[in-house]
Amino acid sequence: MSAMRHRPMAPPGQGAGAGTAGEHGDSDDNNFTDDESSPLTHDIYGGSQRTIQETKGWDVFRDPPIKIETGSTANQECLELTVKILKIFAYVITFIIVLTGGVIAKGTMLFMTSQVRKDKKMEYCNKDLGRDKSFVVRLPEEERVAWIWALLIAYALPEIGALIRSARICFFKTFKVPKTGHFLFVWLMESLSAVGMALLMFVVLPQIDAIQGAMLTNCLCVVPGIFGLLSRTSKEGKRFVKVIIDLAAVAAQVTGLVIWPLLENRRELWVIPVACVMISCGWWENYVSPQSPLGLVRALGRIKEEMKYTRYFCHIFLSIWKILLFFTVTLLIYWAQGEEPGNLFAMYGDAFGPHKIIVYELPAGLGGVLPDTLESANIDTVDVDAAYNTVVYVLLLQIFGAYLCYIFGKFACKILIQGFSYAFPVSLTVPLSVTFLIAACGIRIDDPCFFHDTIPDYLFFTSPSNFRFNNFVTEQMAWAWILWLLSQTWIALHIWTPKCERLATTEKLFVQPMYSSLLIDQSMALNRRRDDQADVKTEDLSEIEKEKGDEYYETISVHTDRSSAPNKPSIKSSDNITRIYSCATMWHETKDEMIEFLKSIMRMDEDQCARRVAQKYLRVLDPDYYEFETHIFFDDAFEISDHSDDDIQCNRFVKLLIATMDEAASEIHQTTIRLRPPKKYPTPYGGRLVWTLPGKTKFITHLKDKDRIRHRKRWSQVMYMYYLLGHRLMELPISVDRKDAIAENTYLLTLDGDIDFKPNAVTLLVDLMKKNKNLGAACGRIHPVGSGPMVWYQLFEYAIGHWLQKATEHMIGCVLCSPGCFSLFRGKALMDDNVMKKYTTRSDEARHYVQYDQGEDRWLCTLLLQRGYRVEYSAASDAYTHCPEGFNEFYNQRRRWVPSTIANIMDLLADAKRTIKINDNISLLYIFYQMMLMGGTILGPGTIFLMLVGAFVAAFRIDNWTSFHYNIVPILAFMFICFTCKSNIQLFVAQVLSTAYALIMMAVIVGTALQLGEDGIGSPSAIFLISMVGSFFIAACLHPQEFWCITCGLIYLLSIPSMYLLLILYSIINLNVVSWGTREVVAKKTKKELEAEKKAAEEAKKRVKQKSMLSFLQSGIGDNGDEEGSVEFSLAGLFRCIFCTHGKTSDEKQQLTSIAESLDTIKHRMDTIESAVDPHGHHASRHGRRRTTSSGSKDHHLLTSVAEKSGDESDESDSDTSAEPKQERDFLTNPYWIEDPDVRKGEVDFLSSTEIQFWKDLIDQYLYPIDNDPVEQARIASDLIELRNKSVFAFFMANALFVLIVFLLQLNKDKLHIIWPLGVKTNITYIEETSEVHISKEYLQLEPIGLVFVFFFALILIIQFTAMLFHRFGTISHILASTELNFCKKKSEDLTQDQLIDKHAVEIVKNLQRLQGIDGDYDNDSGSGPDRIARRKTIQNLEKARQPRRQIGTLDVAFKKRFLKLTADAENNPATPILTRRLTMRAETIRALEVRKNSVMAERRKSAMQTLGAKNEYGITTGAPINNNGALPNQRSGRVSNAGISIKDVFNVNGGAAEIYGSNGGGTINQGYEHVIDEDADGNSLRLTTRNPHPHPHHQVSWGQNTNGGGGNGTGRL
């Protein structure tokens, strides 16, 4: 039944006969569908006539929209240029650091292994010992022991890092225990790697020279090479060629293992193949694939998949084991070489302490040739002091070189500069190391003293004997090394083609949790994770279409972490597409605010359309693709209609929204646009308006009637959560796994009705969501917009709040409040236990009103945090919102915010123990930090008061008590006024006091400066002030885009007493006031209510008269008001003087009203009798504005009973006094508001019965309007006052005690104080009489509590400043990752045609789909030079503008119109559009686009000639023509069996009578996901329902055009 088509009812007065137009189902006259070939710019509001737009000759002058750049669209070219320059620096600096770190780590490792060689002899510099003599040195055992320990430490440190990381994640997060067999296999491979490393470091490398050692490190890829070869699948392209190269690479690696053992014929060198193969086992995991054709490799692939969850648990044990095993093997090697293993411990002290080096003087006859033995008696020796610290310095160089290489390499991967700044330097490390070693060894052999002042003369690399560069090519196997280097590059080729997303986690970037310090470049290359998922190629599109049963091409984002859904074949690729629902709440926004919001949505619409079209027509992969839909929830959207109190109409704010849609669209697309009128739906909660925007996304406005559904923002949020996540998702007839995948990739973008943002801001938030699956919500940087001092204050306040406080929360824990004006929430997180359901809690207690209703955004985040989710802040995601410009509005806003903030943080702190346990991101330290902030907030007024007292003393030179009295009096007076007076008086007094305090603060600033001058720069106040100002300034410098916010700091300073003293007092004392306080307007009243008010006023007037003095004098005279005078006056009711009296005219209108009321009562009774006699024939005659007052009644949307009607309706007045019969109305069928001309003459449609039932159930369960029960309201008011009194008392006592203690200590500072060591004043007195000099020192005396408080605030400042620095680095990384450098990558000439299109696809589409200029629009400011105004073709342009033309209003049609005209032959087609500034008229670009166009066209033509319909998940019954094989042609793709199809038909996906399903054209809506009642609801749309083996007759689906039939009786609701 839900799939039944609901057509609009005939307008009143036309009846069934008016439906004859329905006979022509595909007639344009009745077609209000979102047909993409229909212009959005036509004036179709008047009904069915669609004529070509004509302009009269006298009315051709234009007023095109002017592009105004404010807020999010402000010119940011300077910032963009700065970021690009910064990215260039990032490229270069990262490249240099990775390469330098790698070469230093490699060189120091070879330097250390060179000193480990037993009995190492080398020539010694004779500079200090004798120029004419030759010397040789042999390293003592102590020196060797030191270098062995250095290698042990260098190996162990990264393993210790892995242990700490694994322990932290296992203890604070979750882990999984592996299977025993799997663990043993991983243990074996890691053990082999550790043993191989020990053999390489202590056996192999010491036996060969340093140059050979550097080359040998390119031969550590044997096992990865073999596994990579065995993991090749038949599906890979060019598999045969790749296998051949794999074999060659493995062969080259093997030759490196045996070439030196064979050539040099030394037995110990046969350890080389053993060590190298064992080391290469450590990187097995990265090269096995579960899709391998070999069973063994597949089994290893399954272990690899499990390791994603068990890795950190395994590495807690493996890290310790590998360190112990490496150390044990080292001891065994040391023992095998004939040494005593105990020496490693016995000589440790001597090795790292002072010891001697023995230098041997060679006899002249040896001629510099080193003898085999140095013990002969005739050789002299010299003892030289060892430079024992050298080993420490080299070790530190090795550690930091490797660490910097790893850290900056990871940074390069995160910000997507991996090719140049990661792969390139990693591949260059060994060649550069070899080059330096060749140079260094050659120089050292020629001149042993060359490095005399740099490196101790007894230490150097093991150099080849008789080394000459020409020998390098032949003897050093340079030719073979080139092969080894190339083979390693091939095996690690994946590092050149990364597929990771921006800011990917370490787990996504690397296999092992840490790096190998001794082999840093091999570790970086082979440990960098290979991305298993292959690119979706153009050839695979048909496969995807068949799988999805959908004509358009969508791609699963390459960001998707496939490991999150292992072994779930039921999940479709479309389920992982990002879906963004923007959900805005509106109430009483102004036109300017609405336009900013609508422009933001239009920009999103344009961006989404460009991404969709780029994938559909240009066949590109877009990692940032998303589906988008807008929902606005309009609170209190209806008012009493002008013509009758019984009917309702949309209020002026809804009408304002409708009126501003076209203006916003025109401003964005820079051409005059008139959107098609919205489709109107009556709904159980009020109504719905649905627009289709130019980019084909839906813009749905839900109009809430507060008499049918609960109003206010929180209940609007409940509406969209339950509607989008409950009804639209959980009720889908799909598997649980698919729902889970969809929920994880569904995001709710919560917005306010005045927000201004760009699509990039949303993309950055989605990036955060994709990066961390535990992220429940993410918010951006909110910038206040407006003018005036209050806005300037908020500019600085928001800046400091985001720069310091939000950044700190993000870094050390979680953000506590993700503001509802611009935040992204993950659907799956909201659907969790105790989140959505708990959010529906009705406020029944006083504290609920404060915590739940006054600060709903913060409460929702608190619920997410208490369920373990993380909430983050992205400083790069900018949004602009209107902030209060007036003092009263600002105070009322903060009156809501302050108590709700305190209540929610108190709730979190009270539940801290459980929250810490369940939420990995919240620690005890973070809770302590929040406690400190809470303490500061509560004691803030007392602190400010004491500050004012002290400042008065310093500024006005008065004593402490006088200052105390001056300050306490206005504060107590203000508190008294807040308790006793109305809000407007409180605000007036606050405003006066704020002004006075601002003036006083200026004096205080001067006084404080004088005091600091006296106390000196070393006083605590001076240090704190300088630190605070300095941190603010540095923070501003680190936020260059927002630097000028700091100029508002002076206003902030002057406002401190107002904002931190008066505002806090106002908020706490008005805790019992739970009204919204901002955007309040007077509601429209019924005539009956107006008359009741008038009567009440008259009664009050009479009562005043009767109670006045000497009322007995007036008794019986003039009481009835039957006399009035031309001139009259009275004095306090004592007497009244009337001159020129005359009789008062009778009020005919009142008499007529009385008659109308009587008639109305009779009519009501007649209706009651009629309904009792014939209950089925009677319909509700009115909207039913009045609800019964019973709080238990929830059936407000059903027809009321006879008894209720007779009771409730008898007192309602009917304003319609005419004799015409009143039209019967049902609010779900024909409410009055849908006929309102201000709502435009759009199509009327109806919800499915399923959705209607959903809304009725939801309203019954959670959203029924709360009755105005006077007793209940009185109870709540009483409870709120009691809560207020308790809060004020607690608040007052805490501050009073604090002030009392500190003030008394201040008075008695000379008795109880702490001496401050800094800022000492030294007084020197010279007494002439005695010639004595007296020197006295005067110390500052501080009271203990004050000092504690200064340190308390200083600690908070330090924490926030440090966290801000870290967060800035993360934000800059995010910005750099999102910045594209076109001139830093390959030039366009070097790119293939496909690469050129892929790179600029979205940008190209955005320019091709522009509506401006598509219909001959002209640029009025074209041309340049001194005469450009005179040369302007005004008359020609006006003539051109008046030519009749059929406008194109949808973006994809504009794209296709230009796309089809594309040709590389510019001479024959000079109208080829300009693409972009960088690609303007490039022949390569045009040619590439033309090739892509022809390819797509040919592919579609080929598909059109094939029989489609083999797979159909949905049962379809249709009157559409069936093709020759009896299958339904796929109208969605415009594919019909016609070989002679034209180009235009190929692209016109909406061609023909049997149009496509939905109005999306190429559509973004995934119909497996979009509920059937919520798509475009066009007159010619096709309904799909799931197959039913026993179909019910009512479940048949038909083409919408034919629904009305011939007689127009097909319309109806089931």
Give the arrangement of secondary structure elements:
Elements (H helix, E strand, L loop, with lengths): L76 H40 L4 E4 L9 E5 L2 H32 L7 H28 L2 H7 L5 H9 L8 H26 L6 H10 L14 H42 L6 H4 L1 H4 L4 E7 L17 E6 L4 H25 L3 H29 L22 H7 L2 H14 L14 H4 L10 H8 L13 H8 L29 E9 L4 H27 L8 E9 L3 E3 L7 E3 L1 H18 L9 E5 L2 E7 L5 E7 L8 H18 L5 H9 L1 E7 L3 E2 L1 H13 L3 E11 L3 H24 L9 E5 H4 L5 H4 L6 H8 L2 H11 L3 E13 L4 H24 L1 H7 L5 H15 L1 H17 L3 H21 L2 H33 L4 H19 L10 H6 L1 H14 L17 H21 L15 E9 L3 E9 L4 H26 L28 H7 L40 H15 L6 H38 L6 E14 L4 E11 L1 H35 L14 H16 L25 H9 L8 H11 L21 H22 L9 E2 L27 H5 L37 E2 L28
How would you portray this structure in words?
It is globular, with a radius of gyration of 41 Å. With 1614 residues, it is α+β, with helices and mostly antiparallel strands. The strands form six sheets. It has a ten-stranded mixed sheet, sandwiched between helices. Strands 1-2-3-4 form a four-stranded antiparallel sheet, with no helix packed on it. Helices cover 49% and strands 9% of the residues. Residues 1-52, 532-567, 1109-1122, 1175-1220, 1384-1390, 1466-1481 and 1507-1614 have low confidence and may be disordered. The longest helix has 42 residues, at 295-336. The termini are close together.
